[in-house]
Design brief:
The chain has helices at about 10-25, 30-45, 45-70, 130-135, 180-190, and strands spanning about 80, 85-90, 95-100, 100-110, 110-115, 120-125, 140-145, 145-150, 155-160, 165, 170-175. It has about 200 residues and is an alpha+beta fold. A five-stranded antiparallel β-sheet has the order 6-5-4-8-7. Strands 1-2-3 form a three-stranded antiparallel β-sheet, with no helix packed on it. A three-stranded antiparallel β-sheet has the order 9-10-11, with no helix packed on it. The longest helix has 25 residues, at about 45-70. It is globular and about 45 Å long.
Amino acid sequence: MFSNALSSNYLDSTFVVEKQLEQLVRDNDKSTLLKMVDYLLSSINTHEINYFIDSILEMVHKKWNIEKEQDDTNHIENTPIISNKIILSNSDGKHLIDLKDIIRFQSDGNYTRVYIRNSKPILISKTLKEFEVQFLVFDFERVHQSHLINIHYIKSIKKGNLLTIELDDNTIVPVSRRRKERVIASLKLKKPLLLL
């Protein structure tokens, strides 16, 4: 569906892809939206990726805000990101964290543990998927159903039957088999020296 939109010239394809994104957000088709983002990440240059991801995030945030106002049972809460800082709220209060200090997010059922450099993890009542959508524009990579990592904290990558990533805090994170090719392609763009 969306690959055809990118085969024509850039201005035309931008318009077509924007319209497709708007429709996916209106239809609340998160699965296809994430597939489209994967395709964009593997097919186009960095400037185009940033443009499309900005469009996706803007539309998703608008959609989620509208849903939140209309349905009190919907507890999706936008996590404000201001000037490369994020406000994380939990039962202990609000925490202002530099994005560069976040090492990784780990799923814990309907909660997510946020691991922060030189600090204790914070448990947030949001799913990992909600963080994934919001952090696509930053240097975070969803490597596993349970893990979203900051690529700047990757210490090493161990290839083999199961691809694993060691982070600076000595955590070993598995890369799921179905995400392996996409993760490698993304890291080749963002951190090519790690894959030599």
